[in-house]
Write a structure and sequence with these properties.
By secondary structure, this protein is of the alpha+beta class. The protein has three helices and six strands, in the order H-H-E-E-E-E-H-E-E. The chain has two domains: 17-86; 90-174, Transcription elongation factor, GreA/GreB, C-terminal domain (Chitinase A, domain 3), CATH 3.10.50.30. Helices cover 37% and strands 25% of the residues. Strand 3 and strand 4 form a beta hairpin. The longest helix is centred in the first third of the chain and has 31 residues, at 16-46.
C-alpha cells in the first residue's frame, strides 16, 4: 500500500467537475489566441509584400502554409471545445484507474520519484491545469501512462516502458 497519510498534500485532489470547468476555460483561451494568430497569418499571406519578387521567392507560400496550420489548429480546438461541453465526468469515487479517473501516481525512474496527479479523459487532450497549488495533468485515456495504469487500484504498481528506461508507477489514490 501507500506510505502517504490520508491528509498528505500530495493526495489533494479538486473535484472532477471543477477540473473540466478549468479545462474548458483553458481551451477557450487557446482558441481565442489561435484565432488571433490565424488572422495575423492570413493577413501576412495576403499582404502585398508577400507577393513573390522572383520565381525563387517563397514568402507567400510559407505564409499560406502557416495560415493553413493555424486553421487546422482552430478546427482541432473547436472539436475539443465541443466535446468538453458534452463531457460529463463519472462519479467522484472510482475504485480502479480508467477513463474518468482522477489519479495520484508516484512516478519513479531510478532513484528519482515525483508525484503526479492525472485526470484521465476519453478525449484527445494533453493539458496541464493549475488549480491553486495543485497541478493536474489532463491526459487522453489512450496515452501510454493511462494505458499502463488501466485497471489498477490504490497501492498497485505498474511499469511504463521496458529495459533501462522502465519507470515504476505506484497508484497512491484513485477517485
Amino acid at each position: 500500500m501507500t506510505d502517504c497519510p490520508p491528509d498528505d498534500p500530495a493526495l489533494t485532489l479538486p473535484a472532477k467537475a471543477d477540473i473540466v470547468i478549468a479545462l474548458r476555460a483553458q481551451i477557450a483561451a487557446q482558441l481565442q489566441r489561435a484565432h488571433a494568430a490565424a488572422a495575423t497569418a492570413f493577413a501576412a499571406a495576403t499582404h502585398e509584400e508577400a507577393r513573390p519578387e522572383n520565381k525563387y521567392d517563397t514568402r507567400a507560400l510559407e505564409q499560406s502554409y502557416l495560415s493553413a496550420g493555424q486553421a487546422a489548429r482552430i478546427a482541432a480546438l473547436r472539436g475539443l471545445n465541443a466535446a468538453l461541453h458534452t463531457y460529463q465526468p463519472p462519479p467522484e469515487r472510482m475504485e480502479r484507474v480508467g477513463p474518468g479517473a482522477l489519479v495520484v501516481v508516484e512516478h519513479r525512474a531510478g532513484e528519482a520519484a515525483t508525484v503526479r496527479r492525472l485526470f484521465i479523459v476519453p478525449l484527445s487532450v494533453g493539458e496541464l491545469i493549475t488549480m491553486g497549488d495543485v497541478q493536474i495533468h489532463v491526459v487522453d485515456a489512450h496515452a501510454p501512462m493511462p494505458l499502463a495504469l488501466r485497471g489498477r487500484e490504490e497501492g498497485d504498481v505498474a511499469v511504463l516502458g521496458s529495459g533501462p528506461k522502465a519507470r515504476a508507477l505506484t497508484v497512491l489514490a484513485v477517485r
